[in-house]
Amino acid sequence: MLYALRSLLALVFSLTLSTLVSCTFFSMDAPEPGSSYALLQEKVFTPNCATSGCHDSRNAVAGLDLSPAVSYRNLVGVEPTNQNAKADKLLRVKPGDPYKSFLYSKLDSANLHKSDGYGSPMPLGSRAITAGQLDFIKIWIAAGAPKNGVVADAKLLEDTRPQNEVLSLPQPASGVQIRLDPFPVPPQNEREIFFARQNTQELLLTKFEMIQRDRSHHFILYGYAPGRTLPPVNVIRDLYLPNGQLVPERFAEMSGRTFIVASQLKAETIELPPGMAMRIPANWLLDLNSHYTNGTRDTIYGEVIFNLHTTKPENVRTFVKPLQLGFYNLLLPPKKETVVETTFLVGGIGGGNGQDRFSSRDSIVHIIGLTSHTHRLGKRFVIQIVGGPRNGEIVYTATNWLNPPLLRFDNPIVLRRGEGLKSIVTYYNDTNEIVTFGFRSSDEMNLIFGYYY
């Protein structure tokens, strides 16, 4: 009897200990509730992937179990079992790089080709995940694929648009709609083009609304004032020759142009505060700059549609100007973290070699919006105020190179001559080569964009 009681107590203790260990392990491995990864698990992996006969704990097809307790450690930083993907140096999830992440490729049904040798699109035998869900995954990976924290807009997970939809955008009630028709991007390559078109009417821009095909690196709208040598209209101008060399004429065209608006997302809306507008004069040349990367083994196509929403002159109290500041003398050693600090002062003073500056005509500026731009190696972008009563105050932080926030300041940042902004940008060069400033996605950049009056 005593032996039986001891055996029963031992069994209870063993089961209790096992349960505690199991619960402790699960709590350590599971993401925080409400985090981007927890939502990704709940909305995408659990209903679509970790199902019976697929990537559940019992079957774990291709050695991948996407059950909630283990999915994160089975994905992030792990080599795929697919030999073609492994040869292409993909990871199941490569933090910071969606297009080197096998998970993203397998879910990107519109751009997964048989010639890639990556197998069938996922989820196998069922409907592809939506365009919004794919965007959510891309943004999460670009933000470093964190297990905890919120780095992507949860509304994307409720987006019902199919991935392979035909691009469409309703016409603006007041304003113009402009299209950049589909253009081919060669396999295992990238293509950056410019396409100029004449603007015949004054536009008082209040809102920019855009949609573009996936795998866009960026879209930028520039303007050229008359009175200088202008690029030809309605002709695609490539930044690179087929052999990879830069086209010399593009550099000459870059001088004298005015930045208007930019986006790195599949769809974006940027709206100025009420009573404010940006003036695009009649007879300006509008230059559409589109950059696509194609890591697949088949040709893909770039395409952009955007609306310039406008208002009447009597509705405008303040005219807004675009801001572009940048540092171009980047030199990032391999396998090393590098922090680059750059100061830009109002009045065009103290800029230094290789930097844009505030206009020398401005003695006081009121900044109403700021955003940043780096490529994949940019891990953190901080903007501080320099000088004046707010000296040293951090007013902007971005940790996602693909989806940097456009911060709007209801109370403008007021800077006077001799005051300014400092960018503090942290890069981690995970390659074996020195990386410098450049236009390709494998190069790097360091830019502040914004709006002020």
The string of secondary-structure elements, in order, is HHHHHHEEEEEHEEEEEEEEEEEEEEE
* Number of domains as seen in the coordinates: 4
Largest sheet: 9 strands, mixed
Determine the structural class based on helices, strands and strand pairing: alpha+beta
Please name the CATH topology of the largest domain: Jelly Rolls
What's the count of strands? 20
Average pLDDT over all residues: 89
Question: CATH homologous superfamily of the largest domain - what is it?
Answer: Copper type II, ascorbate-dependent monooxygenase, N-terminal domain
> What's the Cα radius of gyration?
25 Å
Into which percent range does the helicity of residues fall? 10-25%
Distance between the termini: 89 Å
Separate helix tally = 7
Query: Could you name the ranges where pLDDT drops below 50 across 5 or more consecutive residues?
Result: 1-27, 350-355
Give the overall shape: globular
Strand content: 25-35%
State the CATH class of the largest domain: Mainly Beta
The second-level CATH architecture of the largest domain is Sandwich
